[in-house]
Design brief:
The chain has 118 residues and is mainly beta. It is 0% helix and 49% strand. The strands form two sheets. Strands 2, 4, 5, 6, 9, 10 and 11 form a seven-stranded mixed sheet that branches. The N and C termini lie far apart (40 Å).
C-alpha cells in the first residue's frame, strides 16, 4: 500500500506564504505523476499543479501560476508545494496526489486546510 500524508497548512494573512509537505511511503518513491489539487467549500476540486516523469515539466493551474511551485526531496520521501503571495481565494483543503503506473488509479492524501484571511 502507498500512503500520502499532507502537512503544513494553517492560517495565513493575504500576501503571506506557506509551504505544504506531502510525505509518501517508500514504495511511492517513483511516481509517474505527482502533484496537488485543492477544494474550496462548495466548489469542485481543481488542479493546482501536476508533474509527470515523462515530461519533467509542471503543469500549473492558471490561478496559481507564478505564485506556487512544486518540488520534491527523494531522500526525505516528500514532495512540496511552496505557496507565495497567498490570496483569500486560495483558501481550500489541499490534497497531494500521485500515480504509480500510467493506467493505475490515483492515490490521494487526506488533505490539509489552508485558510487565507486577515
Amino acid at each position: 500500500q502507498v500512503q500520502l500524508a499532507e502537512s503544513g497548512g494553517g492560517l495565513v494573512q493575504p500576501g503571506g506564504s506557506l509551504k505544504l509537505s506531502c510525505a509518501h511511503s517508500a514504495s511511492a518513491s517513483l511516481f509517474n505523476v505527482m502533484g496537488w489539487y485543492r477544494q474550496a467549500p462548495g466548489k469542485q476540486r481543481e488542479l493546482v499543479v501536476t508533474i509527470s516523469s515523462n515530461s519533467g515539466s509542471p503543469d500549473y493551474g492558471d490561478s496559481v501560476k507564478g505564485r506556487f511551485r512544486i518540488s520534491r526531496d527523494n531522500a526525505k520521501n516528500t514532495m512540496y508545494l511552496q505557496m507565495n503571495n497567498l490570496k483569500p481565494e486560495d483558501t481550500a483543503v489541499y490534497y497531494c496526489t500521485a500515480k504509480i503506473g500510467w493506467n493505475s488509479a490515483p492515490i490521494w492524501g487526506q488533505g490539509t486546510q489552508v485558510t487565507v484571511s486577515s
